[in-house]
UniProtKB/TrEMBL annotation:
It holds the Pfam family PAN_1. It comes from Caenorhabditis tropicalis. GO terms for biological process: anatomical structure morphogenesis. InterPro entries: Celegans_DevNeuronal_Protein, Pan_app, ZP-C, ZP-C_dom, ZP_dom. This is ZP domain-containing protein. Residues 25-97, 104-190, 195-283, 290-380, 387-474, 481-559 form the Apple domain. Residues 603-622 are annotated as: Disordered. Keywords: Disulfide bond, Membrane, Signal, Transmembrane, Transmembrane helix. The lineage of its organism: Eukaryota, Metazoa, Ecdysozoa, Nematoda, Chromadorea. Residues 635-936 form the ZP domain. SUPFAM superfamilies: Hairpin loop containing domain-like (SSF57414). The chain crosses the membrane at residues 1014-1039. Residues 1-16 form the signal peptide.
């Protein structure tokens, strides 16, 4: 901890050089502000009063002497270069410059943290000579790489910039300290205000609340216009405003736009304000989301008790939870209607309710302070929606153009034949529970493809002859005055501006308001609408005099002007999207992204290419399949606890350790077999191992010379720690302190498409292994076992370590995460990995031959079935066609890998791979392999000058045989009973808070002693015997004395 503190201080001291402050930005650059969390600021020049942080930053941007500002409670302190102590609780902004056209209008563009990193979401690595280049790369990521950069990490020493698809607010558990490198983490405040296909912009309302700091105010607009201004990112004070939420007062018609969200997913606090409703922008994936605003109503820190119909765990975001309410899982049944939702943020738990706070107000109660939870009411209830009161359904046509259907027709809800356009409009608007927003109409076949997206925002229509695009709008226009009586009110021409002097102009209005004004004016022939500024210009006459304009669309009024289809497309001026294909692999073995993908964190992720708004499941969806208990088996060895399923029918899902989904899982894609390897804890085998049962000859081999014992033990311990550090992963194994380890495994076969969630339909097993016999005596390396270190009897008196199997072979995930998992998914891509365990630079190895054979229960291989995988260092011709299409590659000085497609034999659901490995002194030469992609070099050939008579290599530390074998396999495990655990109050469906019952309580008076009845009888029986014995003795004595006196 002290080391990290010193490192952090050094990093902070170097920050001034990394982020130089400026007063004036040079030409071709844009001024930006960075929010910092320093304890010092520059020298104060002046202090001015401002109402909010936006005014403070605007003053600094316009000033020629300002390098930064400090804002607190209406006071804006302007400073230049210097070093003064910052005011506690203030916000510090530093001025900087970047080359980007994507700079948003906001008080600050980046939120900066020193010595912090976000683990697991690195998408691209780009070279950056300074932090300004890194910030520009993040702002331009959508144009350059095709994804929105949510955050970035700049490494000044290596001059590298890592672009992330998530930020710290979305993934707080993966936002961790960095003590190894100098790094600066930055949240991109310009991201998150737009939704990209296939996601829909929606709003969640909180009644009676607004953000503590308002940024912009627009008076006298309706709710629809206020929502449109935020969706289109408009504002009266700035262009391209980074709107993430808005507040609206229905009585005063006051609209307030904000570039911030409320906690816990934002930085701002909600405060109670009478008459206002807070609306937060979200991006939803479900096509069933509501068309009207809002989609959900949120109540913070409240829960509905007793009506949890469906509980899901490990749901990574609240929007994904709400998506499940609009698209209920099949396991809930056909008759289930989701009426409300609860989401526990820290537990990532999603609960779908069958009732609402209005139907059951007596059970709507506050949740405890130890939980962070929100309650949500759905507004449309998956039913057919209607236009708001006073509005009517109308269509906007885009001639000879179509909205992209998406990959595999993802955007299409339904394809339908129709008699005409009006029937398509009715079918689209009447569709439920899916919500159709537009359709592509094929004029030759008279069919329409109903789409859940529209062309209002980021998805641009494309030129397509013979097809017209229709977008649906609810407008305050009652009559159908269109020429064809098909409710097509306007014809839109994209990126086209009508020339001439407009008859009327309106500033900062929504598109619907602009169209309603034109439709209500009998002389309006069309309107120019500027999507960026919100300007509306009406024309009484239109001609062919038009010009291309990036931000303006022209809408021709079909009630006044007749349109003739000449074959020209209204989308002809739309520019093609030009950006590099996302997911490009950067050829840099030392890139920090590789480190971030393997760095140990509280909840690391194995998804290194996950997009913030991309589907999060890589498992194909299918019907849920029941995996019976007899299909599950277990085995315990030194590779750890392994869980394998060999089901009678294929299934799709995930097998993972409960509460450890991110670090211990295996996905199943339409396969009947899968294996999950739990491994062993880091401290496994650290208890002393007794050698009392060994004979003198065996123990004599373990002795070392005097003075060499301690260094040798240190070397062995170092070796063991390095091996365990490389192979350890958190699978939640619990040590029962008696040699037994256990963990809880979840077998999830639902088809919800969310990896890691736990539902009531899933199966839970407690698996355990007893290692007491192994830990209590000599450890024997049995067949099909891999010992993670040299055996004691291999340590020679001369102090060198003899490695009988110097090369370790493993099967890893093929997604680049290097998770040591044994996969059993047919067709999945795995990584076959060899690593030389002798930590000596002068040794190398090559993989000569490899074969696969069935692996059956008990460690016995299948008889007569073998498949030659590698021969002479190259994949065999048959195998190279599909199973191993590439050559063996060097990953590091000690590691070689190749990709292999998972397969199995008919006789067994598991396989064993055995490789013959040879060691060479110095670097091994490559061999050329004829593969399907051409001739490639494979590092599987020994050096020509090696003497074939050499059978052993000796270095300063090791004795290593020249030839050895390495084996890895998929083994089978055994099930145990299902376990249950206590749940939160909201998950219980039988809890009755109104029932009160009396309980009889036994009270013990002070000073009383309570004894068992048997003990009491024993005590009194013993006392009775003693008393009787004493009575007999006394009586006998009295009789004798009396008799003596009488005789005398």
């Amino acid at each position: 901890m002290k080391a990290f503190a010193v490192f952090a201080l050094l990093a902070v001291s170097a920050l001034a050089d990394t982020l130089p402050s400026v007063t004036i930005c040079p030409p071709e650059t844009q001024t930006i502000f960075v929010l910092q969390h320093n304890s010092t600021v520059g020298a104060r020049i002046r202090t001015i009063p401002t109402s909010n942080l936006a005014e403070c930053s605007d003053h600094c941007a316009a000033s020629l002497d300002c390098q930064g500002v400090e804002f607190k409670e209406g006071s804006c302190a302007v400073f230049r270069a210097g070093s003064e102590k910052a005011t506690k609780g203030s916000q510090l902004l530093t001025k900087s410059c970047v080359k980007s056209d994507r700079v948003c209008q906001s008080p600050f563009q980046f939120d900066l943290f020193e010595q912090k990193i976000l683990v697991g979401f690195a998408r691209e690595v780009v070279p950056a000579e300074n932090i300004q280049v890194c910030m520009a790369a993040c702002l331009n990521a959508f144009d350059t790489f095709g994804f929105e950069c949510e955050s970035a990490m700049f490494y000044p020493v290596d001059q590298e910039c890592i672009l992330n698809t998530e930020d710290r607010l979305d993934r707080p558990s993966l936002f961790v300290d960095e003590a190894d490198d100098t790094v600066i983490y930055m949240d991109n405040n310009c991201a998150g205000s737009q939704c990209y296909p296939p996601y829909i912009t929606q709003y969640i309302a909180v009644e009676g609340k607004q953000l503590k700091n308002e940024l912009d105010r627009i008076i006298n607009v309706d709710l629809d216009s206020c929502q449109a201004l935020c969706t289109q990112r408009l504002s009266i004070s700035s262009n391209d405003f980074n709107c993430k939420s808005f507040m609206y007062n229905n009585k005063t018609r006051t609209c307030i736009l904000a570039d911030e969200r409320s906690k816990p997913l934002g930085r701002a606090d909600l405060v109670a304000t009478e008459g206002f409703t807070y609306f937060e922008k979200k991006c939803f994936a479900s096509p069933n989301t509501c068309r009207n605003v809002p989609s959900f109503k949120r109540v913070p820190q409240m829960i509905l008790v007793g009506f949890a119909a469906f509980v899901m765990e490990n749901v990574p975001s609240v929007t994904m939870c709400l998506d499940q309410c609009t698209n209920p899982p099949p396991e809930t049944g056909e008759g289930f209607v989701c009426k409300s939702v609860m989401y526990y943020y820290n537990e990532q738990e999603c609960i779908l309710n069958s009732e609402t706070r209005e139907s059951k107000p007596e059970l709507f109660i506050p949740e405890g302070e130890e939980f962070l939870v929100d309650y949500f009411d759905i507004t449309c209830h998956l039913k057919q929606e209607k236009c708001p009161t006073g509005q009517h359904l109308k269509a906007i046509r885009t001639i000879n153009a179509a909205l992209p259907e998406g990959e595999s027709e993802l955007h299409i809800l339904k394809s339908s034949a129709a008699k005409g356009i009006k029937e398509c409009v009715a079918k689209c608007f009447g569709l439920a529970p899916e919500k159709c927003r537009s359709f592509n109409y094929d004029k030759s076949t008279k069919s329409c493809d109903l789409l859940y997206l529209d062309g209002h925002n980021t998805l641009q229509p494309q030129v397509r002859q013979g097809v017209d695009l229709y977008d649906l709008h609810c407008l305050a226009v009652e009559n159908d005055c269109s020429a064809n009586k098909d409710d097509a009110l306007f014809s839109r021409y994209l990126h086209t501006k009508q020339r001439g002097i407009p008859a009327k102009s309106y500033k900062v209005v929504s598109l619907n308001s602009c169209l309603e004004v034109c439709a209500g004016n009998p002389t309006c022939a069309g309107a120019n609408y500027n999507r960026r500024l919100g300007d509306c210009s009406l024309f009484d006459a239109v001609d062919e005099q038009s010009e291309v304009n990036e931000h303006t669309d022209f809408y021709k009024n079909l009630c006044v002007t007749k349109e003739v289809d000449t074959g020209a497309s209204a989308a002809a001026n739309v520019p093609e999207t030009k950006h590099r294909v996302s997911g490009t692999v950067v050829d840099n073995k030392d890139a920090k992204s590789q480190l971030l993908l393997t760095k140990k964190a509280k909840k690391p992720t194995i998804k290194n290419t996950e997009h913030r708004r991309a589907p999060e499941s890589t498992v194909p969806l299918g019907p849920p399949v029941e995996v019976k208990a007899e299909a599950i088996q277990t085995i315990c060895n030194y590779e750890g606890i392994k869980v394998q399923i060999n089901n009678g029918e294929p299934f799709s899902g995930v097998i993972f350790v409960k509460n450890k989904f991110d670090t211990c899982r295996v996905e199943v894609a339409n396969s009947n077999a899968a294996t999950l390897v739990l491994g062993l804890p880091k401290d496994f085998g650290m208890r002393p191992i007794s050698l009392d049962n060994l004979d003198d000859n065996e123990t004599g081999k373990n002795k070392t010379k005097k003075g060499e014992e301690t260094p040798l033990k240190e070397e062995i311990e170092e070796f063991r720690q390095k091996r365990q550090a490389a192979e350890f992963r958190d699978c939640g194994l619990v040590d029962l302190l008696n040699g037994t380890y256990k963990s809880t495994v979840v077998i999830q076969t639902n088809n919800l498409g969310i990896p890691g969630l736990v539902t009531s339909m899933d199966q839970l097993y407690e698996v355990s292994c007893d290692y007491s016999s192994m830990l209590g005596g000599r450890v024997q390396a049995g067949y099909n076992m891999t010992v993670t270190g040299p055996e004691a009897n291999l340590i020679q008196p001369r102090g060198k370590i003899e490695l009988g199997n110097p090369v370790l072979m493993q099967l890893l995930n093929g997604d680049g995460t290097e998770q040591p998992l044994v996969q059993a998914k047919l067709g999945d891509i795995l990584e076959l990995r060899w690593e030389i365990m002798a930590m000596d630079d002068e040794l190398d190895f090559f993989v000569k031959n490899c074969h696969a054979e069935p692996g059956l229960a008990g460690g016995k291989a299948g008889a007569g079935e073998k498949l030659q995988l590698i021969d002479g260092g190259c994949p065999t011709p048959a195998v190279a066609q599909k199973l191993i299409p590439g050559a063996i590659e060097i990953k590091s000085s000690a590691v070689k890998t190749t990709k292999m497609q998972a397969f199995r034999f008919d006789s067994s659901a598991s396989i064993r791979v055995t490789c013959e490995v040879e060691i060479c002194k110095g670097d091994c030469e490559s061999v050329e392999c004829a593969l399907t992609g051409g001739v490639k070099k494979s590092f599987g050939r020994k050096k020509r000058e090696v003497n074939n008579n050499i059978e052993e290599f000796e270095t300063n530390r090791y004795l290593i045989p020249r030839r050895s074998h390495a084996t890895t396999s998929i083994v089978i495990i055994d099930p145990l009973q299902q376990v249950n655990e206590p749940v939160a109050m909201s998950r219980s469906s039988t809890l009755d808070l109104l029932r009160e019952e009396a309980h009889e309580v036994q009270v013990i008076e002070q000073g009383s002693i309570c004894l068992n009845s048997i003990t009491v009888f024993a005590i009194f029986g013993t006392l009775a015997v003693l008393i009787l014995g004493q009575a007999i003795v006394i009586s006998h004595y009295a009789v004798r004395r009396f008799s003596t006196e009488k005789t005398a």
